[in-house]
């Protein structure tokens, strides 16, 4: 089938750079003003978010930052390139291959233990001091987002950590980057992994780079198989939302850098997950129509 959006890579690239610069400047300015207004020293070492108000303000600031940096910049670039067809170009359509919806979901779910094993192995890699300090600063902010004393905190945390990232990051990294920019200059498989690398790197979490890379790849394949961005959006939303819910139920935030799972059981389950995920990827790929 001929792609109606072919030959737009260069134009989309230009508008993507324009959209990113515009929204980073505008969003960054809004975030800086909000932080100053609320009296929050975001991104500095040793900053604690002890009060409900501080934590809610932090969540709101991060929500605005994510919305502007990824969501609005991607939507702007897509609209400038494709106008009223921008949502179709981004994959915000019904699944093209409905029969691969559940296989895509099961592949993602069965791949989760593998992500856990990769996360454990990633933590065994020694990091230089500046990366350790960066991780500590990031964990302090994450602790502020995922510490709850009241139900409204949970609701805003879900919006900040699950809903907005699922929509905005999938629009940017799967819809625009993987589906349009990268697939125009490389194979679709390469585009899945290249977008996953950028997706992981942009979070600047060195101790979690590899598991987030694998997460991005599974989301990318869900998009490739179904032809609809709504499927990775749903999976991303559930993945982040369950983590927020578990933290709320546990009553205490534990950073990923303090993972204390026993290695042998994790190795066994992760290895089984790798084998099963590999088989499902192979089977789903075989189910795709001939290009």
Automatic annotation (TrEMBL):
<feature type="transmembrane region" description="Helical">
    <location>
        <begin position="12"/>
        <end position="38"/>
    </location>
</feature>
<keyword id="KW-0472">Membrane</keyword>
<protein>
    <recommendedName>
        <fullName>CAAX prenyl protease 2/Lysostaphin resistance protein A-like domain-containing protein</fullName>
    </recommendedName>
</protein>
<feature type="transmembrane region" description="Helical">
    <location>
        <begin position="189"/>
        <end position="209"/>
    </location>
</feature>
<feature type="transmembrane region" description="Helical">
    <location>
        <begin position="58"/>
        <end position="80"/>
    </location>
</feature>
<dbReference type="InterPro" id="IPR003675">
    <property type="entry name" value="Rce1/LyrA-like_dom"/>
</dbReference>
<keyword id="KW-1133">Transmembrane helix</keyword>
<keyword id="KW-0812">Transmembrane</keyword>
<feature type="domain" description="CAAX prenyl protease 2/Lysostaphin resistance protein A-like">
    <location>
        <begin position="153"/>
        <end position="241"/>
    </location>
</feature>
<feature type="transmembrane region" description="Helical">
    <location>
        <begin position="100"/>
        <end position="121"/>
    </location>
</feature>
<dbReference type="Pfam" id="PF02517">
    <property type="entry name" value="Rce1-like"/>
</dbReference>
<feature type="transmembrane region" description="Helical">
    <location>
        <begin position="229"/>
        <end position="249"/>
    </location>
</feature>
<dbReference type="InterPro" id="IPR052710">
    <property type="entry name" value="CAAX_protease"/>
</dbReference>
<feature type="transmembrane region" description="Helical">
    <location>
        <begin position="261"/>
        <end position="282"/>
    </location>
</feature>
